[in-house]
Amino acid sequence: MDTFVQQLINGLTIGSIYALIALGYTMVYGILRLINFAHGDVYMIGAFVGFFLAHGLGFAAEPSLVGLGVTLVGSMAAAAVIGMAIERFFYKPVRKYARMTTLITAIGVSLLIENLGVVIFGNAPRAFPSLVENKQYALFGRATIDSTQLLIFGVSVALMVLLEWIVYHTKVGTAMRAVSFNLNSAKLMGINTDAIIVFTFALGSALAAAGGVLTAQYNPTIYPLMGIITGLKAFVAAVLGGIGNIPGAVLGGLLIGAAETLVVGYGQLVGIPSTYRDAVAFAILILVLLFRPAGLLGTTVQEKV
Amino acid sequence: MKRTIITLVSLALVVASSACERRGGGGGAGDGGPIKVGIYGDLSGQTSSFGQSTKNGALMAIEELNAAGGIGGRKIEYVIEDDQGQPAQAATVVTKLINQDRVHAILGEVASTNSLAAAPKAQEAKIPMITPSSTNPRVTQVGDYIFRVCFTDDFQGAVAAKFAANTLKAKRAAILGDFNSDYSKGMSQYFVQEFTGSGGQIVERQTYTQTDADFKGQLTAIRAANPDVIFVPGYYGQVGVIAKQAKELGIKAPLLGGDGWDAPQLWDLGGAALNGAYMVNHYSIDDPSPAIKKFVDAYRRRYGGTDPDAIAALAYDAMNVLADAIKRAGSTDPAKLRDAIAQTKGFAGVTGSISINENRDAVKPAVVFELRDRKFIYKETIQPSGGETAAAPAG
Q1: Does the distance separating the beta carbons of A223 and B214 come in below 8 Å?
Q2: What is the pLDDT of residue A63?
Q3: Which end of chain A has fewer beta carbons closer than 10 Å to its terminal beta carbon, N or C?
């Protein structure tokens, strides 16, 4: 039992990270009907900015909550700027074309960022410094939760609450929902849709960067291609929850995280090796697309022809 | 979606590929001109510490040989290729070294999976290849032109198992291996053979892949099985994180691994969580023998104070074994050179006496270290013949 609870904690920890990244996918999709494949790479950029901040400002030598806070906020800000730049220079110019054009652009941007990362940072993994001291807290039996996991849960929940507040209780959030509902009508109502789109990209990118820094506290290995598989899984999480649906992205992320960790923990009992954890995410994607294309919390919108 | 992933990955590979470093040039392939050696390794990927150390060790040997007038009056030139730690890329760069650079001999790789991918190219072209540090037995079975100057995993895995059973008095072992690595698979197999053969029990087996972001799932399952020791036959990039996460889960059983751990980055990732872990390796830089001391001092001087890890020492030895064989063959003719390498007996290398056996492998003792505060503390030496162990002189 304690092992099961432990696996659940492990799974929900990475699930929280997937959820943070999935939010960016889902918000951009909600507004532009665009799958921003470069989003996983923004997550990577977030981790790298955090790495340089932590070393540059000396937080690497002396772990403290302040250092973590500054690193986290700094990398979120930097990623927000990069997210806005990606939108402005790559997606905006092709927005008027068919959706396939923007999709292919997104894949191109993703490859560009990854390989620029390889050129600039080198492909060799770097070790992200620990910014908080790790402590374990016993729950029951042998189940423990450690400070990094608490940190990941805490920051993720705080950011999600903040996002919820922005989307449902602010003017800009109302505008976001209006644009998501119908971009052209929103424009007719006098909403500066370009600004809202840019804001959405900034918000999503900042969340992804937070995910990057938090992951690096959990697993200190960072490298330019780290966003590929994590990004894909977060994308699956967004689809599972219902792409375009914000609570859905969170639910999807947590489910994917829990599912893959349970595969690692218990898959062998039914003959599935632990390395199938990645396959599980994609198997879930296929099942969702087959049986519930709108996702768990998504609503099917009938299109008039 | 699947197609998108494949497209993504393959495009990324294409774009990311092809970084190479070249030195020396021209040079005929005939017996008169300079001797050309091709070196390949992972200089920029997940295991780049291995490639960099191989490069450093081999280059130092080449510089020393050239400073002493070359081999039989012929200077040594070299071409270095980066395979980014990818098997397909390893095969490609070795093909390039053979066909384009027309090298006389090849040194590389460290990771067995990459050596296994590249060795058939050298074998087909009948160009002798010496791997300094690939330990999977299958590497030299590729053909009669493939050699190694290190021990093999049937020995290394058994050494780890003996150490676990005899010194750590472990009865229950868990294994956490790298799913895609031939090195890791071989090590696990021989560890299990020896450990269960001596009455031990394998209580849990788990695997991971190099892109896994989290090992806590595997480690939690291992924790539940209550092992006395956890065997982690992987590479440093993952092992450091595994050590950190094992500590976070409150796992007390020591980790035990092999030469794949040997890189300074291991400490950057694992930090204090590595204290108390044990590792099998090829040689100890703290060994007081004059040959090792001379090499370590020269290496530190040449590379700004960096300590030579076993990978660097083996590359240095591999280059010197090659030079010795060229000297004895009196030629760089592939067949003659091959025979000369095969006849290497009792070559005094930094990592011990190197004799190439009928399987084209070197039979050498292994050393076991305890890891503590960024240091490898010598525990014992295990000889290849049987189980006799020399006790550590001081701890």
Answers
A1: no
A2: 80
A3: C
